[in-house]
Amino acid sequence: MRVLIVGSGGREHALAWKIDQSDRLTKLYCAPGNAGTAGIAENVNIDAEDLPGLLDFARQQSIDLTIVGPEDPLCAGIVDLFTGAGLRIFGPSSGAARIEGDKAYAKQFMKSAAIPTAEARIFDNYEQAREYVATRDCALVVKASGLAKGKGVLVCSEPAEALLALDKIMIEKQFGAAGDKVVVEERLSGPEISIHALVDGRNIYVLEPTQDHKPIGEGDTGPNTGGMGAYSPAAILDESTMRQVCSEILVPAIDAMTRRETPYKGVLYAGLMLTAAGPKVLEFNCRFGDPEAQVLLARLQTDLLDVIEAVIDGNLEHITLDWDRRAAVCVVLASEGYPGAYLRRKPISGLDPAGELEDVVVFHSGTAQAQGRIVTNGGRVLGVTALGEDVSAARDLAYRAAGMIDYNGVFYRKDIALQAIS
What we know:
Blueprint: E1 2-7, H1 10-19, E2 27-32, E3 42-43, H2 51-60, E4 65-68, H3 71-76, H4 78-84, E5 89-90, H5 94-101, H6 103-112, E6 120-123, H7 126-134, E7 140-144, E8 153-156, H8 159-171, E9 182-186, E10 192-200, E11 204-206, E12 211-212, E13 215-217, E14 221-224, E15 229-232, H9 239-259, E16 265-275, E17 278-285, H10 292-299, H11 304-313, E18 327-335, H12 351-355, E19 360-364, E20 367-370, E21 373-376, E22 380-388, H13 391-402, E23 410-411
Parallel strand pairs: 1-2, 1-4, 2-3, 4-5
Antiparallel strand pairs: 6-9, 7-8, 7-9, 10-11, 10-16, 12-15, 13-14, 15-18, 16-17, 18-22, 18-23, 19-22, 20-21
Helix pairs in contact: 1-10, 5-6, 7-8
């Protein structure tokens, strides 16, 4: 099978790494890929948002299956384009992907489907948003409604911070057009959990639970990022709560999409807060999380190509996933300045000895090749992922490997997965 993976991050490297293990694979391409995918696939210099270019390439190379990693091309309609051309592709349609691409729409969607979530108001007028925030006396969350690479959510401990957040999003345009509309909602409290489910339009298969770390600083401080680390399994989610998640969140969401004539096919990610009143949705995403994909795919033992084709063909009920019983921990190595401005093209050392450790995989995210060396090329550079008998062992090994890697400006949180063992 000839496979094309769209994207260039750690999630896409993890997808490529897993698919490379399939006996069914004959040729693997990544567009555009990174320095890590270059070691297991042929990178193609086509941007993930160049939908016509990707379609032309898939036709020219007789691609049997295209797998889309990031949200931008999904929301832009790559699945609609490919399926309309008679090509097989994994991911939701643009109508279904809107549940991530438009947070205002997602909030209204959840309300209409009676899915538990934070109370919220939606604004496209700055002055009206300010007037509303000024009347509040509680902690708030301000979200850019459009796509903002996981950075458009500002958590505020008091209304004064929320007013500054409105300035950053709507006036200073830190997230561009994504901030033309905002969602202002109550700040929920409780532990967060990430739930990924495979959906084939009617059947739902829930994957192993994961927990990620969004804020940049230790102790969950500072601005949100795309994710600074993750671990799986997350024992904090018991069977009773998982049943509640399925019956009150996942099933109603999929049923509502079918009723709206935007049936969901692909990976549905539900970011949840386990509140005192039960699980509530913080956000829906239309693809694998990053770095959650790294820990999930490190533990998955079933051929990923079989799983993806079952989703596309509507045969998910015939698939049973096998998981490594061990735990996985991913520690993200970032560039100094992230999630703000950061420097690129810094040579990376220590990749080989770290990657040669048993049960360690170093997934590349923001990397490139320059003059025969691997250099930094993004805010999140690497996802050092390790397996261990339990979360503690996996964590120790991941940090051991992370400590072997160096580049100018490297930093990472030292408390990834700590809550799982403390």
